Amino acid sequence: MKKPSTFRRKSRAIKAAAAAAAALVFPTACQAATSGNFSILSMNVAGLPALVNGNDVPGDKAANHRLIGQKFNEYGYDVIHVQEDFNYHAHLYSTNTHPHRTPTSGGVPLGSGLNTLSRHPYVDFRRVKWDKCSNQDSADCLTPKGFTFMRVALGTDASSSAVYYADFYNLHADAGVTAADLAARQDNVRQLADHMARWSAGNAVVVFGDFNSRYSRGGDTGIRGLLAAGLRDPWVELRRGGRVPAPGEEDACGNPVAADARCETVDKVFYRSGPLVRLAARDFAYDGRRFLQADGKSVLSDHNPVRAELSWEEAGAQSGRRLRQSALFGGEGEGAAWFNDAVALERVVGRPRVAALRFRGGSRLDGVGLTLRSGEVFRHGGSGGTEATLALGEAEFWTEAELCKGERSGKVRNFYIRAVTSAGRTLAAGTRTSSCATFRAPSGWHIVGFVGQDGDEVDQLAFVYAPM
């Protein structure tokens, strides 16, 4: 085992590299389509040190992890969330070829054990520690357990003008069944729901991981709250005909079980659609029989991996209330807030039309805003800088934008914006840098709103498109 000081230096280097990659927010390896399918897998890989916890799994843990990483490739999963990925992380990744993988946060006791391996690019990755934990039934406070968050690019339109994102959450909730454990776990789910309400407004969401919860356990009310909040569970939909198990209706799974078993595990999947991307469940399965050791009998982990197949499509394609989003540009600001005008745009009667643009800027981009002809006003950022305005003509549309980013106080943010209308008129604010990108609305579409993160300035920005 490497010395902790060496490990920490490498961990910092990995995090720095990940931050640099995250600043390049254009998805470069996405499917060109306005609809498609993707598979997800959640697997607790039992990566606690063997001396601490054997997880009742035979064989050498390092060898088991190498085989798990190989099987991730073999079965072609698109996005995989793993939990308890602690001290054998290097072995897991050594045999895996997924092109987008999160850097480890460390082994026990430094890391959360949460990582993602994906065939789709992602941005805005972060780790969040639980506010509450309990050591009553197990050593849940030994490591910084919690959840991770990322925006995954599912695809782009044919012109690469629009990107279809969904917010993915991976979690490992508090274990145990004592009153203290149940209270901590309920608070874990509450914290997750609060984060979704703040940071995933207007976005499709997929949540999967080790909830340590069962519907049939009376005290596990948190996961029922997720259903009440509008999320859907593919296992409930497809294996139980939409009926949620009642408290006390115990039917816990063994390991492994048949792929189409109706029994319940603590590993779960939830999802919801948004005004930009619609999701639907196509299949749910327990994949434990795919993850057996060389003898074909022994399991590689004490958890049944759970798989779901989901479809996605441009929301509103059938109703005609279509909206699209550009790629995100810039970075995450310290203390920034998420905003998404698609939520309000979905409620606009008729097709939205821009009446006026208002930008604020000086040395950086302080604020962006616009007014729709229907009266809605969108404003984001702060009140600094100088305001520049442009009123659009009756037959004029905002069709193109340029953004430039830079670094301030160690954080990447937007420094400049320039709008171009269908009449060739322009409006600009802020200070141009050497790192710029142009965003053009798809043919027959125009820019009608914003998505991103702001504070006193505009840290991150994307554009919402609507048909003309």
UniProtKB/TrEMBL annotation:
The UniProt entry's coiled-coil ranges are: none
SMART domains reported in the protein's UniProt record = Jacalin
Keyword Signal in annotation = yes
Write the record's keywords in alphabetical order, separated by commas.
Signal
Cross-referenced Pfam families: Exo_endo_phos2, Jacalin
The record ties this protein, via InterPro entries, to: Endo/exonu/phosph_ase_sf, IPPc, Jacalin-like_lectin_dom, Jacalin-like_lectin_dom_sf, Sph/SMPD2-like
User: Mind telling me what this protein is named?
Assistant: Jacalin-type lectin domain-containing protein
> Organism source for this protein?
Remersonia thermophila
Lineage, broadest ranks: Eukaryota, Fungi, Dikarya, Ascomycota, Pezizomycotina
